[in-house]
Amino acid sequence: QAKTLGRGRHEFFDVELRERMQRRLRLEQDLRDALPNEQLWTAYQPVVDLQTGRMVAVEALMRWNHPQHGAISPVEFISLAEESDLINVIGTHMLRSTTRELAARRAEHDIDIHLKVNLSVRQLDDPQLVPVVQDALATTGLPANALCLEVTESALMRDHVAAAEILSSLRDVGVRLAIDDFGTGYSSLAQLQRLTLDTLKIDRSFITGIGTSRDAEAIVTSIIAMAHAVDLTVIAEGVETQDQLEILHDLGCDQAQGFYLGRPSPAHDLFPNVASFRCHKA
Ligand code: C2E
Ligand code: MG
Ligand code: MG
Ligand code: MG
């Protein structure tokens, strides 16, 4: 009897696994068509300076509007794209389209807003990355120092020697570099310093605990001190309450991002209001 039971469970898992794999395969196929079919678009989320309360940058976040499934999270489709060369195709598209958008909006609204674009670690292996970035800047006229490329801490640490090399060639182009989701990987201060970054983004999981968990607050305090010691600008991710914002301000955090300050929005909703944007809450 145990045998039949065991087999039944096996079949159950096989079915579930098969269905999951089939969804991934279908989605990967759909993702290949998403770009030519114009289903990919970009949301922009404000990054706010905590001293002045003004918007200083926007982070470009990719969105996929699937014809049957609706909005699919970038967490799911980026990881799908990373399994093939597709990540380089959509990553290149992202760099070209967002620099074009930003350069146009900066001119139209006379604003000095910087652009943050996420890079997959797979893009760091692409020999075309540096030329693509250079070309995007040259074509659009966006100043190199107005572009900041974000790579997650966990991705950087997986292969930090190779990553350091490509980051340094990006740095030679004049763009800024940020370490994203900081606190979730295991980097040392020495590794951080060697990577010659400009910005460190504290992962949302630590910001969520601020105001309720003394441990979270202690961790955030020490991350800010450590980052400032090696001259990095610190951005807090995922600020959702006034309490969190006030504490971050008091801790000397430089900039913040989160639903409390502004949700990721289509360019046409966000940019007309950038010049008048003020956060008096900090
Ligand atoms: P990320 O780069 O750390 O981006 C921040 C994520 O946190 C975004 O999720 C944003 O919508 C969300 N967020 C911002 N403020 C809040 C808040 O107050 N509360 C909560 N709960 N969430 C907040 P999103 O847009 O779903 O993107 C998830 C991840 O997907 C990004 O994390 C990034 O790693 C990746 N991603 C997005 N666009 C791209 C892209 O163009 N290329 C690559 N390689 N990765 C991308
Ligand atoms: Mg990011
Ligand atoms: Mg992040
Ligand atoms: Mg994140």
TrEMBL record:
Domain EAL: 24-278
Domain of life: Bacteria
Name of the protein: PAS domain S-box-containing protein/diguanylate cyclase (GGDEF) domain-containing protein
Species per Swiss-Prot/TrEMBL record: Amycolatopsis xylanica
